[in-house]
UniProtKB/TrEMBL annotation:
Belongs to the ABC transporter superfamily. Siderophore-Fe(3+) uptake transporter (SIUT) (TC 3.A.1.21) family. This is ATP-binding cassette subfamily B protein. Residues 4-227 form the ABC transporter domain. It comes from Oryzihumus leptocrescens. It comes from the Bacteria.
């Protein structure tokens, strides 16, 4: 797995919003939660780690190496991102999973389908023409699409998982199941963005953001004690 560090990162979207001198670490193999209200800068942090944008000041380091020294290809191979609003996915549930598991035995694809509770929907298209209604319609619910997006993020080979409010649309049973699936990926480093402190009880460390700044860091218990 990999260590991620933000070192005094500032980034301006051009209108004064963005990040102001953000620093924190995601230790190798740890799960760190980024918590804060909407607009706090959580998604911007996840974007900078993927090098969608370059910091105006400061740097993001991966195992001590500045992201600017790594190719986009290398970044893509080392990290995976499950976004908050899953993109439109082509093909079927099964083909989406199989795509991330080239040469994997049938049993492995099946195991992943079960792990995210999508085995009964394996032949559905995430989105497409709904023959019954005769119009373009959604074939998977928001929660089902979110589970598929996370399943793709859990596929093997990536050392760093970036999750943006990964289970916001899920019911408690599916949320528990997915949380376990994420936790069972031992040796992976996980950075997860969330609105509320109460949903990230199991993170090793929490980084609280507000208006583009880090305002507190600590374990869940430490943060609850002084708030
Ligand atoms: P969060 O993920 O915590 O909700 P964001 O990182 O999305 O916060 O947003 C941080 C700030 O940057 C907000 O003030 C938001 O309005 C602004 N912002 C986000 N994306 C853009 C963008 N593409 N262009 C301009 N401002 C943006
Ligand atoms: P809400 O939308 O209800 O305010 P959040 O936006 O805070 O909740 O949701 C963030 C999501 O991140 C929660 O649904 C939670 O299950 C999920 N989450 C929290 N900790 C972890 C973790 N360690 N691994 C994966 N997902 C997590």
């Amino acid at each position: 797995s990999v260590h991620v560090g933000l070192r005094g990162v500032s980034f301006d979207y051009g209108d004064g919003s963005g990040l102001h001198e953000v620093s924190f670490d995601v230790p190798r193999g740890a799960t760190v939660a980024l918590v804060g209200p909407s607009g706090a800068g959580k998604s911007t942090v996840l974007s900078l780690i993927q090098r969608f944008y370059e910091p105006d000041a400061g740097s993001v380091v991966l195992d001590g190496v500045d992201l600017r020294c790594l190719s986009h290809r290398e970044l893509r191979e080392r990290m995976t991102y499950a976004e908050q609003e899953p993109a439109v996915l082509e093909g079927t549930v099964r083909s989406n999973i199989a795509l991330g598991l080239p040469d994997a035995p049938e049993s492995r694809v099946r195991a992943v389908l079960h792990e995210v509770n999508l085995a009964t929907l394996e032949h559905r298209s995430p989105e497409g023409l709904d023959a019954a209604v005769g119009e373009r319609g959604v074939r998977l619910s928001g929660g089902e699409r979110q589970r598929l997006t996370i399943a793709r993020a859990l596929l093997p080979g990536r050392e760093l998982l970036l999750l943006d409010e990964p289970t916001a649309q899920l019911d408690p049973a599916n949320e528990d199941q997915l949380r376990q699936a994420i936790r069972s990926r031992q040796g992976r480093t996980v950075l997860v963005a969330a609105h509320r402190l109460s949903t990230v009880l199991d993170a090793d460390r929490i980084v609280v953001m507000e208006s583009g700044r880090v305002v507190a860091t600590g374990t869940h218990d430490e943060l609850v004690r002084c708030s």
